[in-house]
Write a structure and sequence with these properties.
Distance between the termini: 63 Å
Strand content: under 5%
Radius of gyration: 30 Å
Mean pLDDT: 78
Low-confidence stretches: 112-119, 338-343
Number of domains: 2
Number of helices: 23
Structural class: mainly alpha
Order of helices and strands: HHHHHHHHHHHHHHHHHHHHHHH
Oligomer: single chain
Number of strands: 0
Amino acid sequence: MSATDIIFILLNLAGALAVFLFAMKLMSEGLQKYAGSKMRHILSKITGKPLSGILAGAGVTAAIQSSTATTVMVVGFAGAGLLSLGGAVAVVMGANIGTTITAWIIALFGIGTGGGEGVSFSLPMLLGTLSLFFIFSKKDKMQYLGQTIIGLALLLVGMELLEHAIPQLSDGVVETIGTWSHWGFWSVLLFIVVGAILTIILQTSAAMTAVILLMASQGWIEFPMALALVMGQNLGTTLTAQVVAMTTGTTGKRAARAHLVFNVAGVLFSLALFYPICNGIMAMTGITNDISDPLNQQRYPLAITIFHTFFNVGTTVVLAFFIPQVVRLVEWMVPDSQADEGEEEFRLTYLEPNLLSTAELNLQSAKREIEEFSKRVLRMYAFLPGLRTAKDDAEFDAIVERITKYEGITDRMELEITKFLTRVGSGDVSQHASERISTMLRIIDNLESIGDTIYQIAMTRKNKREDAVHFDAGKNANLEHMRVLVEKALVVMDKNLHDYDHVDLDAAYAAEHEINAYRDRLRAQHLDALKLGVYDYAIGNAYSSLYAQYEKLGDYVINVTEAIDSSRKHSDD
């Protein structure tokens, strides 16, 4: 075989793999857009109960067709507190079950005997789906479903192309792999390492699954070595989560370690019973180790898929009873970090810039980040009473410094969340997701304005103190009452941010009305006092500035709830 022939074959392989990966991406994105809001709902309802986490992990992974994506997402959420560590461990277990769907699709529909079954099956799918596009072109749900079917059809085409391209390399490869397969148990360990490395290179367990099934169906590897590659694949898929966890907090790192512990435990469990499991599956499917037997080659993909499912389901069933022990183990592996406890340091808690390409699911983490933004704003607002009651300049300056620091945090949070949402929105997202992104951008703009206004109130208080301007008991009481009214509005806003589908608009408007009415009352009293010369200009200016700033803050608060309500109405339409 000449160098030109080898290059041509490798290009064919690369092209076939590109079609397969593109098909996986197309199918995954179609499923995400078709069921994106449902998946966000599933994630938001995950509890600490193992069964709910396992089912959620399996369901989401089956939908987005990537256990790596689900696990990386779980690491990000756990790092921020969206999931408890125990809940994250359960979701990771479920994700490993969900990833077996890909293997079953490939084994049942994507591996033929070279006769073009994949193409002949996929062409009618493509034709029918294109017809759906013409008939239901204006219906988003049907378009997303059509995209999913097209992705599945192209996946089968990609498998067929791979199946035709791989045999051309078989002469030298089979001989080389054959020499690695005769070292007994050491060969099993070697193929586990090879499987892990190849999965790391391909960066997708789905592609590695396809490669393993094709190698087996072409008679490249004996059945035990194929099972070893599957175990190695499960180890290799943990790397991405470990890398992402480096930028998260302690809980996120622990969730990533839990993923590693789970898969390592699965490999050790399978190694301990390797030959009994292998012989049992061979007896069940009627195969032998004769890789030259066409019947064996035809049955290998199904047998490997059975093992893949057994590996993940079996490991989950066993370890589900030991989740508390797994949690304690990863807590020992990743000790508490004091740096993670600083509330007044800027760090995105829910968003990881390189987390996922799954736009629909990213909105859930963005929503949680906005909730954290709101909590920061409320915490910042809680500093204001201390400016009036500070016993000395040192205490007053310390509070002003904290408010100033929080103001900087709110500015950076708005910038980073805006960048994140803009990048998500620039992708291929559903109409509902696009509207949700617009709503979130409006919300964070108003949250940042709330932070700015709190800072302005602090600066007014500071100038008042420096200028030795003093309020009497009546003015202090009026401003405190105004502060309490705005605090009530902030609490309603924060509650509404946690559930976009059940916005308490009446409570928000009631709080806004109280703020405006009281502002009008204070303004009328202030104007009368100025006419009568009750207090001088400096006192009047500071006093009117403060109650006006509180009222302005209330306007930003109601804007947040109105943005949520507007998004809900669009969603209902």
